[in-house]
Design a protein that fits this description.
417 residues, alpha/beta, 5-stranded mixed sheet, 39% helix, disordered N terminus
Length: 417
């Protein structure tokens, strides 16, 4: 955060940020960084302690006399409920306020069954994961869905794809049962956020995450932040057409979209057309490991077709690293090799000078991590903390008024802190 004026750091939320980042871990540190007086520091710290956001330890190092009390963020002060939905497989979890997974269930769910079936199932699983924890412990809910999402409204926009979800505003449906801030984003965006924060933050600031599974999508990290675009449609590379795709009709209605010729679904279809008896990607893995020439040809071709689209994205975005994730990319090295071959050949020399193309470091856990961070970044934002503490205390807590309950559209309630 760096040094700023005392006025800019006068709120409880800003003090919590300093404690969370480790920039200030004692009252003296806070006073030094912010310029606040000792009484003002004491007031902010007391509010954070009272509302369970901070804990205090008296076993810190001493330089003579009584050691100073050390302040730490209380990650155990609440939980967030999250779920990363895939086209066929869904991860459902409960995390602490640092984003650490506390409990998790993985289910096979066909999202095409629609929100009336899928959302109640998710909420029932969350209730099971909560167990004996009181509802007051729940601070927020985060959901990643395999559809285009208008992030500000939490509304899915999936015309011709996941048709039963089109136009559905998810947050109100969940907050009717869990009355906390609810955040919804595209599934690959949350995976990209999780992968970046846990595996690449501090190493690079520009990253392109490409998920290759039943379907294909991408998440863009630019300058250390997720890039959603004007309404949330950034990263929809699955419906960019490729050359020499063979005239395949995509589920979106167009021809030769990369999703229709290079996804896991496409690989299974092409192998069956060549006489291979494959019912799942696990069968394809077996054939790849056995060195089956026909399978290797199909998988490598899919990688090259995907490489066309990734090469264009590299030219446009100039990421430092391209991360390939999802079932197909994580299990099929020939596909990764095909992507590398085309990207390094077709992207500009400058954009590939130091470009790395590698498989996901986190694997399936990235979606859960990303969903949790999406929620935590909002509910622990300084202005939200100030509004929450001020509302519960009957004062302002140095805050700046009401903050968003989800993505900037509804006022935050005092519920949770």
């Amino acid at each position: 955060m760096g040094r700023r004026s005392a006025a800019a750091l006068a709120s409880s939320g800003e003090v919590l940020h300093l404690i969370r980042t480790g920039e200030a871990v004692t009252r003296a540190d806070i006073g030094r960084v912010t310029g606040l007086s000792r009484p003002a520091v004491a007031l902010r710290v007391s509010g954070l302690l009272e509302h369970g956001l901070v804990v205090e330890h008296t076993d810190g190092p001493s330089t003579g006399g009584r050691p100073p009390a050390r302040l730490a963020f209380n990650a155990a002060g609440g939980v967030v409920l999250v779920s990363s939905l895939g086209a066929s497989r869904t991860q459902i979890a409960m995390c602490d306020l640092a984003g650490r997974e506390l409990a998790r269930t993985d289910l096979e769910i066909d999202v095409e069954r629609g929100p009336d079936v899928v959302l109640p199932l998710l909420m029932d699983v969350w209730a099971d994961l909560l167990g004996e924890r009181p509802m007051s412990q729940v601070r927020g809910v985060g959901l990643g869905v395999p559809a285009t999402v208008e992030f500000a409204a939490g509304r899915t926009e999936s015309a011709r794809v996941m048709a039963s979800w089109t136009g559905v505003m998810i947050p109100p449906l969940i907050s009717a049962r869990y009355p906390v801030p609810v955040f919804v984003d595209n599934d690959v965006n949350v995976i990209a956020m999780g992968e970046y924060q846990e595996a690449y933050a501090g190493e690079v600031r520009d990253l392109l995450f490409v998920k290759v599974s039943t379907r294909i999508g991408a998440g863009v990290i630019a300058g250390g932040e997720i890039l959603r675009g004007a309404l949330g449609a950034a990263g929809e590379i699955g419906h960019i057409p490729v050359r020499d795709g063979g005239g395949v009709l995509c589920r979106c209605g167009n021809i030769d979209c990369v999703d229709s010729v290079a996804s896991g679904t496409a690989i299974l279809r092409d192998l069956r057309a060549r006489g291979r008896e494959v019912s799942s990607l696990a069968d394809v893995v077996t054939l790849v490991r056995a060195g089956d020439a026909e399978t290797m040809t199909v998988v490598r071709r899919a990688g090259r077709l995907l490489g066309e689209v990734v090469a264009s994205a590299v030219n446009l975005l100039n990421p430092a690293v391209v991360v390939l994730g999802g079932d197909v990319a994580e299990q099929f090295q020939p596909l990764v090799s095909g992507v590398r071959e085309v990207v390094y050949r077709r992207s500009t020399a400058l954009s590939t000078r130091s470009l790395r193309i590698e498989r996901s470091r986190l694997g399936p856990s990235a979606g859960i991590t990303g969903c949790a961070l999406m929620v935590i970044d909002h509910i622990l934002a300084p202005e939200v903390v100030d509004a929450s503490i001020g509302a519960l205390s009957g004062g302002t807590a140095g805050g700046s008024g009401l903050a968003p309950a989800h993505a900037g559209r509804r006022p935050v309630t005092a519920r949770g802190f």
